[in-house]
Amino acid sequence: MRADPSRRRARLAALALCLACLCAPSARANGQIQVADVTVSVRTPWPDALDHGALPFFVEVANGSKDSRDVDLVFTNGFGSRTTHLEKRIALGPGERGSFEVFVPVNSWSPSDYVLDVRAGGERDRLSGLGAVKPPEQGVRNVLVVAGSAPRAGLTDGWTNDLSTEAVGRWTPPSPPPAGVVYSRRLGSITYPGMVAGPPPAHVVVATFVPLEDLPHREEPYASIDAVVIDARDGLPVPDATAAIAAFARTGGVVAIFGASAERTTKSSIDLAPWMEERFLVRGDRGMNTYACGQGLLLVCESAEPLDNWPQIKQLNVAIESKKENRSWIPGPRGGRGASLTVHLPGLELPVRAMALVLILFSLLIGPVNMYLVKRARKPALLLVTVPAIAIVFSIVLFAYGALAQGLDVRAQRQTYTLLDQRTHRSSAAEVREVFAGLSPDALKPEAGSSLWPEVGSGSWQEQSRFALDATSGLELGGDYMPVRTPVRQTLLTDRASRARVEVRLEGDEMVVQNALGTSIQAFAYRAKDGRVWASRGVIADGATGKLDLGIPDVGEISESQILCETANEADGWLPVGTYAARLDSCAFVDHMGVEARDVDSKHFLVGVLALAEAP
């Protein structure tokens, strides 16, 4: 007897649903541990394979005991050449609960799998396998899809396939291709196969789905993502998360808002709406619009659902990959926007000739001269005193000479690139610097909206790095974030409110500019609403007014193209209308995190945006 066809179809549908549930994306790296009646839960919605930036941890702590508890949480990662150590203490009364969000740095050449040590009530236990537990994959771009509800089963796999297929034509292997990164341990060696040369299995990965309410409220974790796609059908995330995503875009990220009512949804954001003006339109294709958004890009497209048509797929890939191999300022194995900048702090070379003369003098003094004097005194036992004394004195002198030659202060050579939006009174600044601390500085204390990213090495075992973060009270960065007497290259990002401004106005037939940027302007150019470019070739002191003439001055070889990652359609290879470019004497837009460094041959560039209603 044959089975009823309708029942067979029902069984097949049920089987397909079960398989879909098994294949549906799940939350990454969840874990729970109990120590002395204190329960600690850790989760992260981020992808499980990352190669730059930071990843977020959401931590919930519940004190189930009848006593107060001081709970110490320590996240650690790495061994050998690179380790990261983050500490957080939380005090809970009987029955109290607490929750917080922290972020931890991502490794570029090995998995970012963290271990959590929990100490409470005199007891201790650990939870392992947290974070990005898979090896980084060369050439893979991570795309994060944000929505109010989970997508249909298999949809994320379809997005990954479409994005990867379209991106294959533009993907190029790293040069030189990396060999497998090998780390030695007592029990042998480990080779991470994800780092071998050759094309990845998928060039662009829709790595995970994140609900609107489960997004980080800090901007640092978004630095590990190549693009954030928001499903407009469910509206925007909560204000703090939306502000963090907007800050990510303004400092070089790619944010896409796709789906029904995408334009209305984007214009409802006070952070994103100002960048939807026509003058910032980079390209448009059948309703798929790409806008310059600060130093990054904003994509907006009306559709039934996200990534459901080829223009969205193509333009998202173009936004991630075109012109610059990596739009982000964050250093990573693929470089970064600041990788091509020449930043080299002078004066750190040791005076080799002078030190060679000192060593020759030392050998003469401890040898022939010392022997002659001891022999003349007829007391050979003096050698037991004179040889160690001369060696100690010369060692101290040699160290002091080298230290004084390199200096004892903190100094840096910088290149800063700032986007100042006078409409919203916000500045988005990137600083690439080489810094040298002659003496041990205090811990770095980033303000809200600022972050520090060390240069990524080659993954060599010889490269020693010890990064320490203390999140107990605010955030403090120590260890090799600012090592002593070792020059390091870093990128600082700062997105914050700013009242600095310039005023450009017509006085009769003359165009003038008044400087209120807090520093002198070395060169200035402004593109008026009629398309003409006005320029000042003289220095305009802070608070002073300068006259502008028609013409394009030298405001920096790459300043405007470095800040505005793509040129708007109407800009004709220059600035959008109602914007200006300037080369400054100094930069007050970057948070130096409590440690002041002396500028050495630094360069500071700025692009400013005026409200069109106020622009001449």
Can you walk me through this structure?
The protein is of the alpha+beta class. It is built from eight helices and 31 strands. It has helices at residues 5-23, 155-167, 239-250, 262-267, 310-321, 352-377, 383-406, 559-563; strands at residues 28-35, 38-44, 54-63, 69-79, 82-92, 97-105, 112-120, 123-132, 141-147, 181-185, 188-192, 204-211, 227-231, 254-258, 281-285, 288-293, 296-301, 410-421, 426-437, 450-454, 465-470, 476-479, 488-497, 501-507, 510-516, 521-527, 533-536, 545-550, 579-584, 598-599, 603-609. The strands form five sheets. Strands 18, 19, 20, 23, 24, 25, 26, 27, 28, 29, 30 and 31 form a twelve-stranded mixed sheet that branches. The longest helix has 26 residues, at 352-377. The radius of gyration is 29 Å and the shape is globular. The N and C termini lie far apart (86 Å).
What is this structure's SSE topology?
Blueprint: H1 5-23, E1 28-35, E2 38-44, E3 54-63, E4 69-79, E5 82-92, E6 97-105, E7 112-120, E8 123-132, E9 141-147, H2 155-167, E10 181-185, E11 188-192, E12 204-211, E13 227-231, H3 239-250, E14 254-258, H4 262-267, E15 281-285, E16 288-293, E17 296-301, H5 310-321, H6 352-377, H7 383-406, E18 410-421, E19 426-437, E20 450-454, E21 465-470, E22 476-479, E23 488-497, E24 501-507, E25 510-516, E26 521-527, E27 533-536, E28 545-550, H8 559-563, E29 579-584, E30 598-599, E31 603-609
